[in-house]
Amino acid sequence: MIKTLTLFIILIGFVSQPVYSQDGASVNGYITDSQTGETLLSANVALLEINRGTSTNTSGYYSITNITPGTYTLVATYIGYQRFEKEITLEEGENLRQNIELIPQGVELEEVVVESQAEREAQRNIGRAEVSTELIKEVPAIIEPDVFRSIQLLPGVKAASDFSSGLYIRGGGPDQTLILLDETTVYNPTHFFGFFSTFNPDAVKDVRLYKGGYPAEFGGRLGSVLTVFNKDGNRNETTGSVSLGLLASRVSVEGPYSRGSWMIAVRRSTLEPVLAVLRQSVDSVPDLFYFYDINGKLNFDATADDRFSIAFYTGNDNVSLPFQEDATIKLNYGNQTVSTKWRRIISEELFSSVTATGSRYFNQPGFEIGGTPFESNNKIYDFSLKGDLEYLPNEKNTISTGIWGGILTLSYADRFDDQPTFSNRIQSTYLSAYIQNEWRPTRQWIINGGLRLNTFAEGDFYRFEPRISVENRSFSNIRLQAAYGRYYQYLTLITNEAFSGFDIWLTSDDGVPPSYGDQFVAGAKTIPFEGYGLDVELYYRTMRDLFEFDPFVNDAAGLDYSELFRYGEGYAYGVEVFFEKQTGRYTGFIGYTYGITKRKFPGFNDELLDEPLRGRFYPPKYDRTHDVNFVSTYKLSDRWSVSAVFNFASGQPYTKPLGRTQFNGVPWGSSERDIFTVGNLNASRLPSYHRLDISFSRKGTFFKLGDAEWQFQVINAYSRRNIWFYNYDFEENPVERQDVLLLPVIPSVSYTVNF
To answer: 241 and 251 in contact (C-beta within 8 Å)?
Structure first.
């Protein structure tokens, strides 16, 4: 770790030496929403006369340096906002602080608003997708508008089932996606057994998904990165919203104070009245069930160059469910996160941020059968400190470097009949450093190269991760892109597709090396017609040294930690197509994914194959070869709109029982003995999945006190009873198969007031 820190100090010295050697003028500042004061991420800003520009970073800050003195037209654009133009005059050596407020632009139904190609290009880097909060709230959603459910509509992202909001991205499981809330790691971002995510749409400002080939500033996962930033809070006036739903309700308030802004958002389930009615006529209804989450943020503007913020989140699920006369399942799980950030403009060319984070995850499942309890207690504590520098020496280079270190503690304990039966605790420090440079040698080429160094104390692991992406803009409306990266992961997740509240994380250690893999991505992005976008990406990725809990271990007591795991490998490849209509009364997109993912672990398929074929690759449960999502919204009038989402996907794999042989009167053991024969692991497929959801929205006012909106939804409109899995009754002869079905048709209504 000392070596990593030394490397980082050298990097800082390298990028900071020339800071004060520039003689040209510069212009910099923050770009914000004129109504709320929220910073706008990835907004575009340029000087027209010299055709030079940049975009804002994740703090909403921009800087254009080394400008020849003179008079220029400063232009700023952002999707959904009016174009900003202002004439500025720069003297030699002048550093002009020009904060920009962009005015939201309403969509007029009588005209078609065409947004500039440059605005769209900023959101279409290779492997990257952004999900707007408007899309999250508009598309039909089960129970609640949901970030993860909206992300699952994008190409390359698959849904395991109607009951799972887990992100299965480009062949990777949920543990292969790093999820950051205000730069803090979230370990189980789900509610309601995984039915939807913990991210309250009223609190969210920005959602970015890096599906693959992500840059060196991120690390720790094999597959992808999801970053979520909460709102800063309205800096101009106090506003809020209240949303009432059948199963959950939300309230949020935000506003200014003398030195900054604040925001708080609360969401809670409102299931109790429904459950009380169901208990009178339905068995196995929960005796207790509720969930809640609270988001908050406070911003403090110390000086024109220094801004501080503190953000927090807390959420909890609690359920008690009887499943027999004398048996009960209890589950209590949740997350808490906190992050404090200091942003400082050191000079016109150097921007810095320091972030301290804390994350806690716990799950406490318990079973009580005949008065005898069995309990588990799983906890994760993650505390970290992160520093980043962004250096803009000239118009051709943007250099970023940073360091991220922390302490990760995982503990797991079992108790049976109030007596401890198993416990394990791992604590490890981790440290990583990165440097990357976005180099623009000409107007046609953008090259982003980077290197990341990761260390993990448990096992004394040091790993280097090279990253590079290349983009060519030789054609006026086509962007050709390619990327490569090496990625390491020190964690693995034991999860249940049906109930994410039982999630258990385990780490690398002595004898348990980290997983690693390579990603190769190529793509083409184009705007074939005004107001339309077409993106195509191909990917191939490897996964090596995958480690997971060995299902053949019957008793973990007395075993070394490394003996609890089995080790395997995998790969995934595919093609994604995304066609979008961006403007007008009718908007929407079609996303298609052709994807293949395979795994190989010892002990699976071994007994069914000859020696040369043992350990054959098989598809994991969540694999779907074809996946199509169609999302559309039509503005019927200035008050009414209709949205529809149609999903089609190939059937998921499963292992099929092939037969049963029954022996009677055997001379050993019982008088009867059954031998079951099953097919190769996940060699069969369930029927194809498809579903249509429809939503109608009506906007109005609430007694002239604020804007209001009714939303009427029908989930699974034509009641397609998709199959979740098959349940086999082996007591019958022949064996009976029962279809376990997913969601039926579900109507829903909600009412939201913004004040």
So the answer is: yes
Q: What is the pLDDT of residue 228?
A: 94
Bridge partners (DSSP) of residue 82 are: none
Distance of alpha carbon 90 from alpha carbon 69, whole angstroms? 5
Check residue 729 and report its DSSP letter.
Answer: E
- pLDDT tens across 279-294, in order? 666 666 677 788 999 9
Q: What is the pLDDT of residue 613?
A: 45
Tokens coding 491: 């964690």
**Alpha-carbon gap, residue 745 to 664, rounded angstroms:** 47
Query: Which tokens belong to 9?
Result: 């100090």
Q: Cα dist. 748→164, 238, 245, 267, 346 in Å?
A: 19, 30, 8, 17, 51
For residues 618 and 680, the answer to whether their CB atoms sit within 8 Å is yes
Tokens of 507: 């780490």
The 8-class DSSP code of residue 657 comes to: E
Q: Phi and psi dihedrals of 238, rounded to 5?
A: -80, 125
Q: Could you tell me the CA-to-CA distances from 86 to 75, 82, 100, 105 in Å, in that order?
A: 7, 13, 10, 18
Q: Considering Cα of 139, then 140, then 145, then 149, what sign does the dihedral take?
A: negative
Q: Is 274 left (phi over 0), alpha (psi -120 to 50) or beta?
A: alpha
- Contact in structure between 561 and 459 (CB atoms under 8 Å): no
DSSP code per residue over 583-613: SSSEEEEEEEEEEEEEEE-TTSSGGGS-GGG
For the cut 60, the answer to whether the pLDDT of residue 9 exceeds it is no
Least confident segment among 117-121, 208-212, 550-554, 653-657? 117-121
Q: Which of 320-329, 656-665, 697-706 has the lowest mean pLDDT?
A: 656-665
Which residue would you say has higher pLDDT here, 233 or 611?
233
CB 382 within 8 A of CB 406: yes
Is the CB of residue 194 less than 8 Å from the CB of residue 159?
Answer: no
Q: pTM for the complete prediction?
A: 0.89
